[in-house]
């Protein structure tokens, strides 16, 4: 077994991200500590991918770990923000299971037969207007809502109220688009499971 993979630089960055998310969770009610810790974790999410490509240290474990940490962080915020936050987190974990079970580490590149609107979101690794809106809704919306609830946006960043509300609306639109893609992934996986059962019978 290649234990050396656990010590790849991008994976070590992932372990640091886990630690940051855990500390942020402990300090959740202190915005001055929570926001920098969580934002640093998000920044490192981009750094680990760059490091993996730069150092040629991509791996299936690293791809799996990256999504797990993303889900842990967002799930933590959604669950702390709202009583119903677990629903958002549950959908994200369900999609994670569907995509990585059927498609593995290459899940981002396996949507060639999906509907046009799904391909538009996924194209170029989310580097399209729709893709950027979707990723913003997925990653930024919970942090923006935290900043709104704890008055970080108004008291620390001096964001006017109208812009705070506009941000919530735009990011919510992105999150709903993400939800639509997530539902498509789940339905597609269910069809895959049913077809697989039918093939076994035949």
UniProtKB/TrEMBL annotation:
PROSITE patterns in the record, alphabetically? Answer: CDP_ALCOHOL_P_TRANSF (PS00379)
Compartment list: Membrane
Q: Name one GO cellular component term.
A: membrane
Gene3D superfamilies per record? 1.20.120.1760
Question: Which keywords does the record carry?
Answer: Lipid biosynthesis, Lipid metabolism, Membrane, Phospholipid biosynthesis, Phospholipid metabolism, Transferase, Transmembrane, Transmembrane helix
Please state which protein family the record places this protein in.
Answer: Belongs to the CDP-alcohol phosphatidyltransferase class-I family.
Q: What is this protein called?
A: CDP-diacylglycerol--inositol 3-phosphatidyltransferase
The species this protein was found in: Cyprinus carpio (Common carp)
């Amino acid at each position: 077994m290649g234990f050396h993979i656990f010590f790849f630089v991008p994976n070590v960055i992932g372990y640091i991200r886990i630690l940051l998310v855990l500390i942020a969770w402990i300090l959740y009610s202190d915005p001055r500590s929570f926001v920098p810790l969580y934002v640093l974790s998000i920044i490192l999410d981009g750094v680990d991918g760059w490091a993996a490509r730069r150092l040629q240290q991509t791996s299936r474990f690293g791809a799996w770990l990256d999504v797990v940490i993303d889900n842990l962080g967002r799930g933590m915020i959604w669950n702390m923000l709202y009583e119903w936050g677990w629903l958002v987190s549950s959908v994200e974990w369900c999609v994670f299971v569907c995509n990585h079970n059927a498609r593995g580490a290459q899940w981002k590149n396996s949507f060639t037969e999906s509907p046009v609107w799904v391909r538009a979101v996924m194209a170029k690794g989310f580097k399209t207007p729709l893709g950027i809106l979707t990723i913003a809704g997925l990653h930024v919306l919970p942090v923006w809502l935290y900043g709104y609830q704890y008055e970080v946006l108004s008291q620390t960043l001096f964001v006017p109220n109208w812009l705070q509300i506009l941000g919530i609306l735009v990011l919510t639109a992105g999150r709903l688009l993400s939800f639509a893609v997530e539902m498509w992934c789940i339905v597609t996986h269910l069809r895959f499971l049913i077809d697989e059962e039918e093939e076994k019978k035949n």
